[in-house]
Amino acid sequence: MIKNCDITELEAKGTVFHESNAADKTISCGLTNPTEWLAQTVKLTLEKVNDSSDKITCTTNGGEFSCSDDSLAAGIASVAASTAAGVSMTATLDSTALASTVAYRCSVEVGDATEDETATDTKLIYVQKIRVRYENYNLEKYEKMTIGETLKVSVFGDDAYPLFSSTCGMGGDTATDLSTVNVGQRAGTDVTLTCTFNFDAANTMTYTYSVPGFNIVANCDDVYDKDEGCKDCPGNSYRKTGSSQFEDCTRCPAGEQPKKDRSGCVTCDDGQFSTYAEKCKPCPVGSIGVKGFCELCGYGTHASGEGASTCEPCAAGYFSSVSGSKECIKCPSGSFSESGASGCRICDAGNYPMVAEGRTTCAPCLAGHYSAGGSPACTPCPKGTMVNTEATKCTPCPVGKYNDVTGQTSCKDCDSTKYSSEEGSTFCLKCKGKIEDNACTNCNAGQELKGGECAACTDGHISLAGMESCIACPPGKTKNTAGDICDECKAGTYQPESSKNTCLACDADKGHFQPETGETYCKKTRPGFQLDGGSNEKDEVPCEKNSYSTGGASKCSKCESGKGEYTDSTGSTYCNVCQFNLDSAGNCGTISCKGNKIELEGIGSGNFTFPDTSAGGTASVKCDESNNGADGEMITRYCRYNALTKEVEWASADSSACSSKFTEDVKDKVNKMNDVNIKDPAATKAAVKDMKDLATKANEMAPKDLSNIATSLSTFTDNLAEQGVEVDEEEASGLASTIGSVAGAGEEKMASVSETEKTEMRGCVTTIAKQLKESVPVQTDSIGMQKFSVADMDSETPLTLPKPKNDTVSAPTLKMKGTPKADGQTVAPTVAVFNKKTAAAIFPMPSTPSDEETNSDGGSTKSKNITYAIDSSIVSLEFAGTTELDIEIEIAVDTSKDVEQSSRNVERIRTCKFYNETAKEWSTKGCETKEGETISGDEKHYLCACQHNTSFAIILSSAEIADTVQSTVSSVLNVINLVFLGLTFLCIAPFKQFQARRLIQIQTQLCIALFVGHISFLILGTTNASNKACVPGVIIVQYLFLVAVAWSVCASVTLYEKIVNALKSFGKQDKHYFVKCLAGCWSAPLFMVLAAYITSISLDANLPYVTATGELDDDKTETCWVASPWKWVGFIIPVYLCLGINVILFVMIARIIIRAGKSGSNTSHAREIKAIMSIATTVCLPWLVALLMAGPPAMAQIFQWVFIIVTASQGPTMFICFVIFQEDVLTNLFSLFGKEPPQVLLAPKSSKASKSAASEISSVKPTTAAVKKEEKSDIVHVKNPEYNDPAQEEENRQSEENIYSKVDEEAPAVKDDTISRGSVSSKHMYEATSFTQHGDKNDNITPVPAVEQGETYENNAANDLDIAQNSYPHVPQLV
Q1: Of 25, 6, 5, 7, which Cα lies nearest the Cα of 15?
Q2: 133: closest CA among 313, 324, 278?
Q3: Which backbone phi and psi does 282 adopt, to 5 degrees?
Q4: What is the tens place of the pLDDT at every residue in 70-126?
Q5: Are 147 and 187 in contact (CB under 8 A)?
Q6: Which residues sit opposite 60 in a β-bridge?
Q7: Positive or negative CA dihedral for 457, 459, 462, 465?
């Protein structure tokens, strides 16, 4: 709202200047009452009338008033703002720019044009040029006046108008009317004339003028002038003819001019005017001439040309608000005027001019539009507002409403899910929580908006307070308790998936670890490494000396010194087999590296000799013998065992502590390069050239010099990249040549350069390639590089990559199978190609990566001592800004040396791998190798199909093929063994007539245990110690073989009871014996094996339960078997305890069998041999051969073969003994087909069987043993008529069977044969009968084993006794 609108009137003040001086003159204009105007928007402008190209603008702002002098109006030198008496400006005139009277227009505008009203006012300010005339005849004529003369002073404007209401004073005199001034006594001197001029009531000013001194002049016939002498009357004057020289010319008054006859003055014509000094001339524009004077045209009129006699009224739409206008001003937009108007009228608020400017009607604004008073057009209400009823302003939309378009008469309501909490909203906010009273309450952290309510985030999702939806935690991170942060997985854990609440622990038992946080995978211990203290949170550490791992190991396995196993260093992947003796420290004492001399040019004398050093030892020599070697300046060299060649060898010498003759020069050049101005091309080229020239001596430098150069180049190229400096071909070639020279310093020296410096060297080449100009290849002897352009990517032809100059094979090529994109734009690669020698020097040597199997054959248990080498150039490739690629790189390989190595028993495989800078290893992940064409006998191409940026190369893996003859033979024989074990089981187990026999039941269980055990052993042979199936497989195999051995003990005890102890237990049997064996043999071994395993995992010691060290083949065999000492505790000791029992019982049984054979007259020992063989097989005696495998390596190798053959023949032997040798089993099998077995397979009948009973009885002689028994009364004589019956004897002969037939059957009891010891009858019988040495009729008695008091003897085995042929009647028939 404008205050004091009715007093918005400008106060203006003009000035005058003499025709000869306008300096220090000022004009001003402004408003009064500062406290009112400073609080409002005031815009004050000053411009020259008829010249509005520049103007001065002063405005109020925040209670202050200031002017901008950036653009000053014409004739103004400077301007100053003032608030002392209102808001006003004071302008200082530019004396050099003013030549005549000028008018300035001062305008003011109060209020904002965008608001509902403004107030304006305009005033003209005159800067009047004046002329002062002094009228005195003598003074003008002679410049000399007489005392008392009167001086008439007249002042005129440059328009010839005399100024009115003006007074002057001479010197200090009081100012009087200009008409006369008394000269006084000042004749002859200069006097000061002070005048006050009035143009109108508001403009009064003082002007000072100096009158020159008076002079005396001479006579003249004409008018006299002090400078020109006699002359005609000047200007608008005349002199009558005959006038005196002292008389002045008569001047015509203003408005007149001399008559032509010079007789007087005449009035100027219409449209003209004259001044005291000038004759009549046209009135200037803006005025008219009337009776010799010019009158300014009034308000609303104008005169556009000179000499006008009338003023023309302003046309409609134009106005003139000041007098003297030369033209009318067009009404501004939004206003109009009638003809002859002195000002324009504006349309009221809410209206606008109807059609065009200058029209006299106003129309209402359209709906949704508004206008302030005087607006040229209506304006649509902006977004967030609506127009008021009067269309004079826009009002903001209330809370809860909005307008998203302009020109609206009402506001829209927000949707139910949105709100607006402030007035003037242009849109509604989407509420991420609840809406109450047009306000949104946000969901808390860990919540999201669902169905208008806040709900907890799901698993693995988090949100911050106020978030509308939850976001998933990325892989490597999990949701925290509060639900607002995704925490990184701690060291030792990982999370490969997103949206998870918890991290997964790396399985330390499998050798998995992760020392970093926030990871998505676990690392796997590499071959030769183990976990640090079993922790999955620390980095892996190498295996200690005399221990090894094949990868994926929590703990390294100990080498078995008892087998001559050892390692020559830490970090071993296998145990060597010492062909000599190991010392107490596990060193193979007689293997050592012989004294060796090497050359390290540039270091000391250049020649260094290392003494004999045992494998695993380190030798040291001084860097410089001349100064006795400075502290720490030593060259060290390690003696190691090469498993591939089975020989010791020297490792590369470590000379990193040594200096060279170039060390100081290198430091100087390095400092120069570090200090160079990167953006000075000349300086950088000079520094690069110096370093390149110095690097040509790299083969004479020390490793520390090479490291310093590498570090300096890294810093230099990093600065190039940071400052975006482009590298030209010359500079790039110099840098690449420097790196190539350093890399070519020699294997011995580069071995002492750290991996950090080598990484920096690789990074230098990559950075240089990035800073190259596009499509400009750079090729040096060892490195080629190029930055391709996007234009190169359009071709379907594979890109030929730059190759090093000294490469003899074809250049690598790059084929894009898909267009690489970054942010939707095609990107081109930067490429660097390292030749094979340089690549081997600065890239790490490849080894088996953690993400691949240790063995190349995918699960084979045969370790092949694989070695890896870089076999091609390395192509370093980068597509900036993208990681999703589908490319194919063709790399050539020199295969000329393959023929030379073909005689070695080595398998060579070439694989495309990339160098993983994060894992610091070569890997095949994301790459596929395809063999390409063979260009010649010495060059073959390989295709690397990969999906990522990195460095690619063909890696040659050379694997010594293990001797698998022994394991192959073992597998074949085991299969045969299984076949016969299965046949034996099928020939006995299904038939009921054999199921009641105790010994056959035991044999059946033994077959089952051996059959399943050998199958498990064959399956176990397909894995290795790093396989997760190894531990359960080892436990199962141990258990089954222990079960087999346990059943052999049961068989031994059974045979012992039936053969050796038959008399003592004659006829007595334990009915639950088999059940006891069944429970013990299947449960006790399980306890032993599990006890050993549980103990191994419970002890905090480096004693793994399984080992990869094989028992067969050579030292390259890698298998899965139980490690020491657990194989002794849980397997070997129980096995040999059982075998020891079997041996004792076997000796006792064999002794009886042999004696029984000797006591008969039969000269053939076939039956004894069969029996002993059968018993030995049953009790697993061939396993004793394994004891001999623990001897010296040469003998152990022999008995390994013996053990394989003997154990593998167990099945065939059991088939022969349990099936072929048992007539009843054999007869049963043939009877299934209705046939009888061949006679050759049946046992021969005894020669005694054909003899008569009488002859048999008469031939019986008591043996020494019988006599002793008789003497001790251990034998009772029983009269048994059945033994004298020939028919019974024949029946007895028909019932003869071998030891595996009916020895354990229970025959029907004979009542008459039952004798109780201690009874009267027995005593009587003993006394009534006698057994003599002479063979009488009482000799037909049968000796009966002694029976303890109270025991009952059942003579149910009497038919199994052969008294005639065996002096050991308790031994059954053998066959």
Answers
A1: 25
A2: 278
A3: -60, 145
A4: 777 778 888 888 888 788 899 888 877 777 888 889 999 888 766 667 888 898 888
A5: yes
A6: 65
A7: positive
